[in-house]
Amino acid sequence: MARQDSEDKRLWQLEQIGFSYGGQAVLHDLDLVLEKGKCYGILGPNGSGKTTLLDLLCGLLVPERGTIRFGGQSPAGWQPKQLARKLALVPQDFVVRFGFTVREVVEMGRHPHLGRFALLTKQDHNLVDAVMEELAVTALADRPVTRLSGGEKQRVAVARALAQDPEVLLLDEATSNLDIFHSLSILGTIRSRVQQQGLTVIAALHDLNLAGFFCDQLIFLRQGRLLHQGRVAEVLQADVIREVYGVEARVRSDAFAGCRQVSYKIPGSEG
Question: Are strands 24-35 and 10-21 parallel, antiparallel or unpaired?
Fold first, then answer.
């Protein structure tokens, strides 16, 4: 019975995944199990394979070797609209080349739930309004998205993804263009959905302190290989940071932040 319960929680199963770009290996023999209702942080140096892993999880890429199962089947086996109802991706660089308003862009998140030629219902509009309020973009509703700052565009991208009402949210450096207030606000909003609605989040991150604040489990990659995976308290450790990033760090439980936090030693500094 316990084994059955454990299997029921599995969302993704990756076995011996390998992937290359132009003959250059990016991921090597990756084995990974990701469960429902958790927030996972994918961490590692530039070029370690974080974005590639996200693209494989959502079916934008197909592995050269190994197997990926999402909900028991390959992502490629899902109909695109079915997959869009379950997964939402916030890319690192959110680009809209036409002058849609902010409201129109957020409303696009509802399209996977609509029938052909169907219009948004009152319920859809209410959901869009609520998400825009949560992400503090209501005041931008009528502004063309092409005229927003990078940080504003990123908040709109997150709003569109949440308007999609997905079971899984994938974030690729989604807070990289945001100031600390909006980073914490957005991650806090998403975190509450993990806790209250069972949302599953897979987030590629650079900031270890944000990861400590936001995530249940951390996945450390280096040169396309999985080095460590586990609960934050288990793997956010000085020796792991040294192995993955090659820097000296001190990790402590911070009562003010309410989570583990990292400080770094500048190479060559005394003390």
Answer: antiparallel
2-264 carries CATH number 3.40.50.300: yes
Q: How far apart are CA 192 and CA 196, in angstroms?
A: 6
The span from the CA of 209 to the CA of 187, in Å, is 12
Q: For 10-45, what is each residue's pLDDT tens digit?
A: 899 999 999 999 888 999 999 999 999 999 999 999
DSSP reduced 3-state for 30: strand
The tens digit of pLDDT for each residue in 211-246 reads: 999 999 999 999 999 999 999 999 999 999 999 999
Token pair belonging to 221: 């990659």
* CA-based R_g, the chain, Å: 19
Average pLDDT, the chain: 91
The closest of 212, 169, 209, 175 to 193, measured between CA atoms, is 169
How many Cβ atoms from other residues are within 10 Å of residue 196's Cβ? 8
Higher per-residue confidence, 268 vs 203: 203
Q: What are the structural domain ranges in the chain? A: 2-264
pLDDT higher than threshold 70 for residue 5: no
Dihedral sign (CA 173, 177, 180, 182): negative
Residue 118 corresponds to which tokens in the numbers above? Answer: 């169907």
| Spatial distance between the Cα atoms of 137 and 131, rounded to a whole number of angstroms | 9
Please say whether the beta carbons of 32 and 218 come within 8 A: no
pLDDT band of 175, cuts 50, 70, 90: confident
State the Cα–Cα distance between residues 15 and 142, nearest whole angstrom.
Answer: 46
State the Cα–Cα distance between residues 75 and 52, nearest whole angstrom: 15
CA distance 181 to 184: 5
Mutual angle of helices 150-163 and 122-134, in 10-degree steps: 140
